[in-house]
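sanity check this fold:
=====
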Amino acid sequence: MTRNTVFGQVMQLFSRSGFKQCVDRYSGDRYTKSFNCWQQLVVMLYAQARGLKSLRDLEISLRSQRRKWYHLGLESVARSTVSDANNTRKAEIFQDLYYDIFRRCQSLAPGHKFRFKNPLYTMDSSLISLCLSTFPWASYRQRKGALKLHALLDHRGYLPAFITVTSGRCHDVKVVKDDNYGFPTLQPDSILTVDRGYYDFKWFYSLKLNRVSFITRAKKNLAFELVGQQDAPKKKGVISDRIIRLTGTREKKVYPITLRLICFHDKETNRELVFLTNNFNLAASTIAELYKHRWQIEIFFKWIKQNLKIKTFLGTSENAVMTQIWIALIYYLLLAFIKFQTRYAFSLHEFMRVIGEVLLEYVDIIEVLKLKTDNLKLLKPDIGQLGLQLNF
């Protein structure tokens, strides 16, 4: 039996020197005596893995396992100390740590399902609703608070290559156009699918200049003239495949070259969909399939909202909320990293449940991966039933 717990083995995946660089960049451990950034990361990751909903639950859960702290580097888990750290230490420490882990995880990620080798991305956003009275800084509507999580999903392994959190009122296209948000420059020959929330021809033209292909849905009021037409294989649902030029007063100035307009019949929904793209190389049916594959980012948002603690928070300040979101996403990457490295056969959801059940057990994580959730009792020690004698 291993001398380290499952949680301790997971924490060993971190590069301590890389984490120290993230901490030193923002002076995170300055004036710290007992509860440093590493201990904060350990405690908050534990809360994610256990699905704990309050600082009181976190404190009680960890104190009940005090004898297993030594390998984690913990000295204190007082909820007031954890609260102060989440409120005052910059969340950017864990943001930088996220991208450091992402680069390691990306190298192990499997490719996407399409035959071409071009990098494939999807950009979208999702609202995180908040109680306005509890989070007054997250104003969204008159009686509602919200944050907006923007993600660029890399279809190699379905990992978010770019994440930013804004106010709920922030328009989607502003994030990709404004350099202050840090949207990355995609490498040439990449393919990006977006919905109509990113409909901006000036931005589309900047993608074209960087040799990036975009695919989106065309708006009904699109003004254009027909320049040419390509053969449409109707057996695959393609109704028409046209080459167009924009004729709108502003649109033709910001996007002066030709585009491709594809009309496609979706048999599953019995709807006609019109796609707009600057990619003239891929088949029209492939363009339609790529946009349909954009749904993977909706699955990603749904998964993290259901399985990670990014809807209920352990603190109410903006910094505490951002810290928890970044650490939740770090936990997602850690699970994906282990899954890729070990080629775990089951879903990420089942893997997360397995890890949560045996988090502080002294067992090799490889043995954990061999078992399904129903067989986890085989790894836990048999403590035996406590008999109580009642005298009346």
Q: What stands out?
A: The radius of gyration is 25 Å.
